[in-house]
Design goal:
2 domains; alpha/beta; 360 residues; Rossmann fold; binds NADP nicotinamide-adenine-dinucleotide phosphate; Dihydrodipicolinate Reductase, domain 2; globular; single chain; seven-stranded parallel sheet; seven-stranded mixed sheet
Length: 360
């Protein structure tokens, strides 16, 4: 394939963790070019302070300057991509303001939102999950859910994509194949335990990410339900499945990574080989999903990569599916880039590492 015309990308939330990771990945992308790392801190922070790990040292751009440049690009008739790596609630506010400003030209912008703002299609489910009405209701139906392994056809050429949550990515890769194959008992509880690293909480220091309390420590949270369960519920509905989900999250002394253990009740006897065959079939040909023949998924295999590593086994009447991903790559910026590749007609794997760091 000859290298296509570059598409400029405006990245909002420029100083955040996911922004830093997307900027790193963009350095190796043949056709997506950073137009602006849009940051509220543009006046105060220079490139060095923003993301010192990046060799390309992208300078932060002020919101107004970046938006003017985007308008100019669109006035020239060019394409553009926008990624929102903003906190929940801020992305919908930013996109609705930007849309109003761009008018009809907004239709030519490929938008990926990394926040939770456009992930849930049903406004009632959104309100119940996030504690209030949606801030940009009319735009909600425009968004396609951005998990390529389950929604690739809809993502090709899509204009608006809501990238899934990091826990939600692992949960869906674990549970949807078996649900789709109709081998699970939807009356018994589906138990999912997810463990996350501190980068899941963003760049700002918080009590739960402060090193003396996080390092060598471990705790559970969201015992009464985690917001990402709603994304799995939504995914299962596509296959007519409603099951009692019990997801419990844990904070682990890791920086990157999610490890999920799903214990799913079987509706009928199944061997490990039969169960694994369901997963290898559904994920056959997937560039970023590896179903292990032996051994167990480990964070070090996937950290720094866009790969999800799965282990499948059956014990008695329970199917165990283990998933390891890097929350800020496959669970965040890598997935956003995978979606952008599909949206813009680029090869899906462009700019995305498949090998993990090995040590992390
Ligand atoms: N971390 C993960 O593992 C992960 C995975 C999947 C999805 N997500 C979601 O992706 C989004 C970005 O995550 P992140 O981890 O990169 O977060 P983050 O490190 O906290 O970065 C968010 C950035 O948004 C900007 N911002 C704009 N308005 C803000 C406001 N009112 N309050 C605070 N910050 C504001 C800030 O950048 P400027 O000051 O430079 O403008 C901030 O650095 C979040 O919605 C998060 O839930 C995170």
């Amino acid at each position: 394939m000859t290298t296509p015309e570059p598409v400029p990308l405006w990245l909002y939330g420029g100083s955040g963790l996911l922004a830093g990771e997307l900027l790193r990945l963009l350095e190796a992308h043949p056709a997506l070019q950073l137009a602006a790392a849009v940051s509220r801190k543009a006046e105060k922070a220079d490139a060095e302070a923003l993301h010192p790990h990046l060799a390309s040292r992208p300078a932060p751009a002020a919101v107004e300057d970046a938006q003017k440049a985007l308008e100019t690009q669109l006035a020239r008739g060019g394409r553009a991509a926008v990624v929102f790596a903003l906190p929940h609630g801020q992305a919908a506010a930013a996109w609705s303001a930007l849309r109003a400003r761009l008018g009809a030209a907004a239709e030519r912008v490929a938008v990926v939102d990394l926040s939770a703002d456009y992930r849930l299609r049903d406004p009632q489910r959104f309100a119940a999950t996030y504690g209030g009405p949606h801030g940009d209701l009319s735009e909600l139906p425009q968004f396609v859910y951005g998990l390529p392994e389950l929604h690739r056809a809809k993502l090709r050429g899509a204009r608006r994509v809501a990238a899934p949550g990091c826990f939600a990515t692992a949960m869906q890769l674990a549970a949807v194949p078996a649900a789709r194959a109709e081998v699970l008992d939807a009356k018994a509880p589906w138990i999912l335990y997810g463990i996350t690293g501190s980068s899941g909480s963003g760049a700002e220091p918080k009590p739960g990410t402060h090193h003396p309390y996080r390092n060598n420590n471990f705790w559970a949270y969201s015992l009464d339900g985690h917001r990402h369960e709603a994304e799995l519920e939504q995914a299962l509905e596509e296959y007519g499945v409603r099951a009692p989900l019990h997801f419990v999250a844990h904070s682990a002394p890791l920086t990157r990574g999610i490890h999920l253990t799903a214990a799913l009740p079987l509706a009928r006897p199944l061997t490990t080989a039969q169960a694994r065959a369901i997963y290898t079939e559904i994920f056959s040909g997937e560039p970023f999903v590896e179903v292990l023949e032996s051994g167990v998924p480990e964070i070090r295999r996937v950290a720094g990569s866009n790969r999800a590593c799965l282990g499948v086994s059956v014990r008695g009447s329970v199917l165990h599916v283990l998933v390891a991903i890097d929350n800020i790559v496959k669970g965040g910026s890598g997935q956003a880039l995978q979606c952008l590749n599909l949206m813009l007609g680029f090869p899906e794997t462009w700019g995305l590492p498949r090998s993990g760091l090995g040590v992390c």
